Amino acid sequence: MALKEVKQRIKSVKSISQITKAMEVVAATKMRRSQEVALSGRPFALAALEMLYGISFYYAGKKKPKIIRERKSGGKAVLVVVTSDRGMAGAFNANV
To answer: Which of 60, 63, 75, 84 could form a disulfide with 89 if both were Cys (CB 3.0 to 4.6 A apart)?
Structure first.
């Protein structure tokens, strides 16, 4: 290899290294942001689980309504949709 080719190769490797580092920084930032979003939703998930636990505890030993009875596998599923009744929550309710 000629000296010119070696210098060109070194230059291209450095350039690729810089691009790779920049991509790693962007990926780390996106990952951190995603983790923050996931962790910020945890209190709401725990509150929802607590609410469902309270409902099942209330009906322990009593005849349960159809909506919370256990079903055989393969049956239809029931979804409980929780939306907001506060103002300015249109996007949230639409996305739910």
So the answer is: 84
Q: Are 82 and 48 in contact (CB under 8 A)?
A: yes
pLDDT tens, position by position, 4-23: 899 999 999 999 999 999 99
26 Rama class: left (phi>0) / alpha (psi -120 to 50) / beta? alpha
22: which 2 tokens? 């920049």
Tokens, residue 91: 């996007």
CA distance 32 to 38: 10
| Residues in CB range of 5: below 8 A, 6 or more apart | none
What is 22-71 written as a DSSP string? HHHHHHHHHHHHHHHHHHHTHHHHHHHHHHHHHHHHHTTTSPPPGGGS--
Residue-wise pLDDT tens digits, 13-66: 999 999 999 999 999 999 999 999 889 989 988 998 898 888 878 887 788 777
